[in-house]
Amino acid sequence: MPLPSPTDLLRRKLVGRVRGVFNDVESGQGPVPLSDEALFERDSPIRMVHAGVVPMMVGGIRSLLLQMLHPHALQGVLDHSDFRTDMHGRLRRTARFIAVTTFGHRDDAMEAIARVNRIHVAVRGELPGGGRYSATDPRTLAWVHVAEATSFLDAYLAYVRPDMPADERDEYFRQFAVIADALGADPVPRTSAEAQDLMAKMRSDLSSSEAAREVAQLVLTQRPKGAPVAVQRALGAAAVDLLPPYARTMLGLRRPAASALPARMATRAMSETLRWAFRQR
User: How many Cβ atoms from other residues are within 10 Å of residue 15's Cβ?
Assistant: First the structure.
């Protein structure tokens, strides 16, 4: 058997490092197997968008920042999450859920959705200003969903395929709606226009708070063990750059100015490198 070439060794190292970030390798967790019996067909819009490693990391950071502007979603995280000590674990579990429901066998996807629904039943409590919150509230789930969907797609458009046709963008929302419906979200957008309309309508549900700003800083400063500081900063800057202006203001964040172009260039370079590495497998 011939020895692997330096190029092949580099590919393996890159793929291994990425899988170590997204999978709990210490407990033996491996990558999600790609299935031809998934909820969505191969090469369909949702599978293309969610296959982009770097755009999904940028989109994941952006979506979490947006979600923390909803008082109910924020309080659920504060009361029922160990995000302060394990932010990476939370992001990794979210990434695992997205991978299973997008690429895994449909039975595994539906079990993952059922598991999240069971967890959500216990995530409830009181809001600081009065009233109660519940993770099963359809409108709160709608905000979490639309924040994720728009963030993943916006990052994909920014760093992979800016010329993605409008009909494929709409199909992405229609496909992602299958998961949102199963989680109990309502309303759920099924086109790009509906997503933007829902984002605008739900602005009145959002609020700025010291707690939201604290979580934002943790999201942007904590990094996985072994991840280079420069990578974490570039991904964070790229996510902040893609936020709507009102969200940056509410979270006390500034749009990267002098660092915006270098961050975009570094993020695009990482995206292209990892697309090359995974495309060869």
Answer: 17
Domain membership flag for residue 6: no
Residue 14, φ and ψ in degrees, nearest 5:
-65, -45
Question: What are the φ/ψ torsions at residue 183 (nearest 5 degrees)?
Answer: -85, -10
In a domain, 167, yes or no: yes
Total number of domains constituting the chain? 1
User: What would the pLDDT profile of 97-141 be if each residue is shown by its tens digit?
Assistant: 998 999 899 999 999 999 999 999 999 999 998 999 999 999 999
> Could you tell me where the DSSP H helices lie in the chain?
6-22, 45-50, 53-67, 71-80, 87-103, 106-122, 138-159, 166-183, 192-201, 210-221, 229-242, 245-250, 260-279
The tens digit of pLDDT for each residue in 89-100 reads 677 788 889 989
Tell me the sheet residues that pair with 126: 132
CB atoms within 10 A of CB 221: 12
Bond preceding residue 224 cis, omega within 30 of 0:
no
Opening angle at CA 157, ends 31 and 187, nearest 5: 80
Find the domain containing 186 and state its range. Answer: 33-279
